[in-house]
Write a structure and sequence with these properties.
Radius of gyration: 27 Å
CATH architecture of the largest domain: Alpha-Beta Barrel
Strand content: 15-25%
Helix content: 25-40%
Distance between the termini: 36 Å
Largest sheet: 6 strands, mixed
Structural class: alpha/beta
CATH topology of the largest domain: TIM Barrel
Number of strands: 28
Number of helices: 23
Length: about 700
């Protein structure tokens, strides 16, 4: 079935003389895993790339390291590829990838204006020095040094040297990254390049000269049989004087003529909030429509699937003008990838986040086991954690970065395991325990597996994060692994004693925090707990997508026009987004300080973008208030400046951070000798935390 369904995707391909095992490849996004002592590849990243190769992907491209110490990346935050003395370090990863008969490339890039001087103290470099007002991204340094001709010659040599080091280390080719906001792009883009010399902005040829000379230099140094895949921005969407698709097509032709063996076009999308100091950009197409699609999106982009394959039309246009292979990227899945290949719009399909979520995705499609693919839900946890200096993590795959440590091993002693709960912590613990050979049964009060994920899907929608798909994955795994699932059952101490398990896992979820305010019992109030129970009861008969659609008609009757949301952290802000999109006038209030508004939302993209979006749509957010009472008019508060205000409300919703629900664990205490409390029952957190907890406990038993 897999071979027929993915006939084109499973075919080998060629980048130069290098044959790939299939046309689904892993391009060079760096997962992180820093720090790196003395610039040496450590075991963790070698294990990660080996796991990708073992999973069957057509080509593994290792993320770029330092080529121009100390300003090429961030010192100690990457391995080094700027000297032949690092060849043994790099060879560890090529040996690991080649062990599985998989070709290995490594990305070559220079951060340029992205280098964070505030963090390192080193001055970044760029094609031009721009003022704060001229910078396309206002969070970049405005004192990047404009490169002299001597600087250009030196850095060109650094690029060529990096390719030589890669070749000596056993890599089969390189991916040259001139995309994003990196140094190479600062020459190609008129928004970044203000020079007026042979590398300046006055012609396409002069803007491309840095690129052309580097590609030629690499080819001369490494030979014709060492391929270069060239990555560039096909569009700098939303950016004045940014790269246009027509310009990209010209650059792609020049790159091919210079010796590039493949072209990898992607898009850098610039947001334009009212506060220009918060201007940002993204190359993740699924983030562009969050919380809603900006106006005046370029006609070359396709957001009909909420960002999935949005960049592909631009790649297809590039393919029309080059004869070397073109790589398509941008929130693709195997089915979309197969269609793109069959339609002749690209020659290779790149996955990144989906391979982080499931290293074995390629092998599973080859074996016709698509239902076993652990889904990437596009939560952005991976990227956000790295951006904030944390260890990379994945909501779906708790083994990311711990591939050897978390390798599934048979349990020393087979046990009967009873799991209480149907949310992500319970499901992951049950899955891992069953994989290790334990006899597992799971009891949930709901009729469907997924727990609060399904409730969250009603509020958040299924386009941005496919939480129902995540739940379906677990449903399938429970069946395949022989986990006995009992639905609609409230677990009692008597039931536990009747089942008589060796191990009891309590993952029954969290409880709602309802503030103590005079009038909180009023019919004007809908607590989060009441809403939660209502949605859970409705989910017995319909899915999250249908219920979300139905709210368009039900909310005007249920809530009226003016809604006050008590709670300004993750739950409150996402509830406000849901309500605004359904035409409600919303006010958010919280006792917390202003800096805690939106707490729990990912700091990269999601929190700042959602708060700006709410502000632009007239949502008033009041922090540091004191609740006085709820009356017929609405919610009475004292503001932080001491004024008493009545916030008009036809309905008041509570959406406070959750609290641990210790009741179930206390009720079952003493029934079994070996008991674990996990997930929200232990400490409320994100789905990421729940899955991580379940994965850990499942491996502990």
């Amino acid at each position: 079935m897999g071979k027929e369904r993915y006939e084109r995707l499973l075919q080998p391909g060629f980048i130069g003389p290098v044959k790939t095992r299939m046309r689904l490849i892993k391009t060079g996004a760096n997962p992180g895993f820093f720090p790196y002592q003395d610039g040496i590849m450590h075991r963790q990243i070698v294990d990660y790339y080996e796991a990708l190769a073992a999973g069957g992907v057509g080509l593994v491209t290792v993320g770029g390291g330092e080529i121009d110490y100390p300003i090429g990346t961030v010192p100690d935050h990457g391995y080094r590829q700027d000297d032949l003395k690092y060849v043994p370090s790099l060879q560890r990863v090529t040996d690991a990838i080649h062990r599985h008969d998989c070709p290995a490339f490594i990305q070559v890039f220079h951060m340029g204006p992205m280098h964070p001087k505030a963090l390192t103290g080193f001055q970044p470099i760029a094609a031009s020095r721009l003022s704060k007002e001229e910078l396309p991204r206002k969070d970049f340094s405005d004192n990047a040094k404009e490169m002299t001709l001597d600087d250009i010659e030196r850095v060109k040599e650094r690029f060529v040297n990096a390719a030589l080091v890669a070749q000596r280390a056993g890599f089969d080719g390189v991916e040259l990254n001139f995309a994003c906001n990196h140094l190479g792009n600062s020459f190609l883009s008129r928004a970044w390049n203000k020079r007026h010399d042979g590398y300046g902005c006055d012609s396409l040829e002069s803007r491309a000269r840095f690129m052309v000379e580097i590609i030629r230099g690499m080819k001369e140094a490494t030979g014709a049989d060492f391929p270069i895949a060239f990555m560039l921005n096909s569009l700098e969407a939303g950016l004045k004087d940014g790269i246009t698709l027509q310009e990209c097509r010209a650059f792609a032709v020049m790159a091919e003529q210079a010796g590039a063996d493949a072209i990898h076009p992607r898009v850098e999308f610039y947001t334009n909030p009212r506060d220009l100091m918060k201007r940002d950009s993204t190359h993740f197409p699924d983030m562009v429509p969050y919380p809603s699609l900006p106006k005046n999106v370029e006609k070359e982009l396709d957001f009909s699937r909420h960002g999935e394959a949005a960049w592909v039309p631009a790649a297809a246009e590039v393919k029309k003008v080059v004869s070397v292979p073109v790589v398509a990227v941008g929130r693709l899945d195997p089915d979309l990838g197969e269609k793109i290949l069959r339609d002749g719009r690209a020659d290779f399909i790149s996955h990144n986040r989906r391979l982080m979520a499931d290293h074995d995705l390629p092998r599973k499609i080859r074996e016709g086991r698509e239902e076993d693919i652990a889904p990437c839900t596009a939560c952005m946890t991976c990227y956000s954690r790295v951006e904030h200096g944390e260890t990379p993590g994945c909501r779906t795959n708790a083994a990311l970065g711990r591939e050897k440590e978390y390798e599934i091993k048979p349990a020393e002693k087979r046990k009967t395991v009873m799991v209480v709960g149907g949310g992500p912590a319970a499901l992951e613990a049950a899955r891992v325990a069953a994989l290790r050979g334990h006899e597992v049964s799971l009891y949930t009060a709901m009729r469907k597996l997924g727990g609060s994920m399904l409730v969250a899907a009603v509020v958040k929608g299924t386009q941005k994060e496919d939480l129902p798909g995540f739940a379906r994955y677990y449903e399938t795994q429970m069946k395949k692994l022989g986990v006995e699932v009992h639905r609609g059952i409230k677990v009692t101490a008597e039931l536990v004693k009747q089942v008589g398990p060796d191990v009891l896992l309590v993952a029954a979820g969290a409880k709602h925090d309802v503030p103590t305010i005079p009038g909180i019992d009023s019919r004007k109030v809908m607590t989060g707990e009441k809403l939660h129970h209502l949605l859970k009861s409705l989910l017995r008969f319909a899915g999250p997508k249908f219920l979300r659609w139905g709210t368009k008609f039900a909310l005007p009757v249920m809530l009226g026009k003016d809604v006050v949301v008590i709670g300004g952290r993750l739950h409150g802000c996402q509830t406000a987004e849901f309500l605004v999109k359904r035409g409600r006038n919303v006010t958010i209030v919280d006792t917390c300080p202003r800096e805690q508004i939106g707490e729990g939302l990912l700091e990269t993209f999601m929190k700042p973008w959602l708060l700006l979006w709410l502000e632009d749509r007239g949502v008033e957010i009041l922090s540091e208030v004191e609740y006085q009472e709820i009356n017929k008019a609405g919610l009475v508060v004292t503001t932080k400046d001491g004024n008493r205000r009545t916030l008009k409300a036809s309905k008041i919703l509570t959406a406070m951070p959750m609290l641990p629900d210790t009741e179930v664990a206390q009720r079952l205490r003493g029934t079994v000798k070996e008991v674990y409390v996990l997930g929200d029952s232990r400490e409320p957190g994100l789905i990421f935390d729940a899955v991580a907890d379940g994965a850990k406990v499942g491996r502990t038993i």
